[in-house]
Amino acid sequence: MTDVPSYTANQRLLDPRRLGTTTMLSSTSKYLNHPRLRHWVAVESLRRNGPDMDHYGGPLEIIDIFRELDDVDEINRLFAEARARDSELDAWFEARFLVPHDLQALAELPEGTLGREYQKMLAEQGLQADFLPFESTATDYDYFHRRHSQTHDIEHLVVGYRYDPLGEFALIAARTTNLLKTFGQELGEHISVVSTLLVATGMSRFGCHYPHLLPPLYKALGEGNRIGEQLNTPLFMPRYEDMFEWTVEEVREHLGVVHSPDFEDTMWSLGEYFDAA
């Protein structure tokens, strides 16, 4: 087969931990071993933002990547354990609550209500409701992500950080802290790794190209973490649709969202960040 002395086909399959060194990229990390994820992390960490690829270009791709990488059976097992410990969580999964969002009806609600502010944010930013690529609710894993695709933008309003780069990072901090508090470390790590990579690559991009935005980024992460700790309920569980006629402040008070004295709504212009070539 080959004139290399003592060579066997099985050597190509040797565990690099036993081999010691290898001429090919190989790792004990399933993340490093995934070529699409390696490419995504490198590009998202080092690129600039421009009209061809703005700040929001990366999330949909990494979500798709993790549909290949996630250990769905293990995550469903851990969800089942969590449900056995928590009757409210069990009821939430059992109900599989989903309801379409009628944006025309929400546009007719009074100013300041959760539903009206949600509709306005989508319209002003040219966003689509329920945009994440999840459709199935067959398993707990499926439903968890399907419901998140409905509530993500509503959570922006509830936490108080709007739809801009700093707002995304603040919401990730609040949601991840809240998930870890709700589910514990093992399950929490499984379902927050995508968010962790979004923050890590985003911080790298800020540091490389927009270092003047690092101080407000750190501030937003800190505020998000504090809010996630103080929430009196898991952020993913409320039926926000039942609160669409409440004022945003009433919803925040109900869920335990309290802003620090120096809180600033982040819906301000980041023109030079978005428009960089």
Radius of gyration: 21 Å
Query: Which sheet architecture does the biggest sheet show?
Result: none
Beta fraction of the residues? under 5%
CA-CA gap between termini = 52 Å
Order of helices and strands: HHHHHHHHHHHHH
On the 0 to 100 scale, the average pLDDT is 85
Overall 3D shape: globular
Structural class: mainly alpha
Number of beta-strand segments:
0
Fraction in helix: 55-70%
Outline the fold blueprint.
Elements: H1 16-19, H2 35-46, H3 59-69, H4 72-85, H5 87-95, H6 103-106, H7 114-125, H8 140-159, H9 165-183, H10 185-209, H11 214-230, H12 248-255, H13 271-274
Would you give an account of this structure?
There is one protein chain. The chain is built from 13 helices and no strands. Helices cover 57% and strands 0% of the residues. By secondary structure, it is mainly alpha-helical. It is globular, with a radius of gyration of 21 Å.
What keyword list fits this structure?
13 helices; 0% strand; mainly alpha; 277 residues
